[in-house]
Automatic annotation (TrEMBL):
GO terms for molecular function: histidinol-phosphatase activity; metal ion binding. Its EC number is 3.1.3.15. Mg(2+) 1 binds at residues 72, 87, 89, 210. It comes from Shinella sumterensis. This is Histidinol-phosphatase. It catalyses: L-histidinol phosphate + H2O = L-histidinol + phosphate.
């Protein structure tokens, strides 16, 4: 274990504790009658989203009071160089329609850059945990596929409806250059990529709490993840995300996205 990995261990363990606390709360609300409220951006939110985030924020405050917190539902609490980024239910539309592949995203940033993070899928009991140099899936190492060619790639996006304006043409050009394309899954599809079951993911319109946890998971599994221009993702990124199994595949995807 490297010095950096050793440094990350306590935070990774705490992130897992947070996910363990969130999972039963999510399941207690799943497939039950819920009041659905539309936020200013018209995205849906439920009592489940808010209850989970409040609980996680309280746990973080108790353990690391000096750390910042950035949550989807309750905004930013300023802190030191470390900030926990929380999405209590990633895939709220899936959650409220009974689709089981919603997740809880928890990450820790250091100087506004992703440091460690996890994808937890309460309904299936699956979890990907990413940290410097390593990603695990349910306790075992996770590795991306060896796919290096777009023509052989298995492509995913949550929904074609995400893309607007000239993004539509870029999405169609890229996705139709792959071997097959599938839709749906929110954060779950990034777990599939980390475990080698798909090869390429393209999305847009994401917020930091949607993607910060994904970066350590994908990179720790050997994959690449960036914005559409190839820049590293940070809290200040523009919400365009492309993730690939290999550097070769990533370069080909970026070339089509930026003709």
């Amino acid at each position: 274990m490297t010095t950096f990995e050793h440094f990350a261990e306590p935070y990774v363990h705490f992130a897992a504790e947070l996910a363990d606390a969130a999972r039963p709360l999510a399941l207690s609300y799943f497939r039950t009658p819920l009041e659905i409220v539309s936020k200013l951006d018209e995205s849906p939110v439920t009592i489940a989203d808010r209850t989970i985030e409040q609980h996680l924020r309280a746990l973080i405050q108790a353990r690391f009071p000096e750390h910042g917190i950035y949550g989807e539902e309750f905004g930013i609490k300023e802190g030191n160089a470390f900030t926990w980024v929380l999405d209590p239910i990633d895939g709220t539309k899936s959650f409220i329609t009974g689709f089981p592949l919603f997740g809880t995203l928890i990450s820790l940033t250091m100087d506004e850059k992703p440091f460690c993070g996890l994808i937890d899928v309460p309904a299936t009991g699956e979890r990907w945990v990413g940290q410097p140099g390593h990603t695990s899936f349910s306790g075992s190492p996770a590795k991306t596929s060896m796919c290096e060619k777009l023509s052989e790639a298995r492509f995913y996006t949550t929904s074609p409806d995400m893309f607007t304006g000239d993004q539509v043409d870029r999405f169609e050009t890229l996705s139709r250059s792959t071997r097959l394309r599938r839709f749906g899954g929110d954060c779950y599809i990034y777990g599939l990529l980390a475990s080698g079951h798909c090869d390429l993911v393209l999305e847009t319109g994401l917020q930091p709490y949607d993607y910060m946890a994904l970066v350590p998971v994908i990179r720790g599994a050997g994959g690449c993840i960036s914005d559409w221009q190839g820049n590293d993702l940070s809290i200040h990124s523009n919400g365009q995300v492309v993730a690939s199994a290999t550097p070769e595949l990533h370069d080909q995807a970026l070339a089509l996205l930026n003709p």
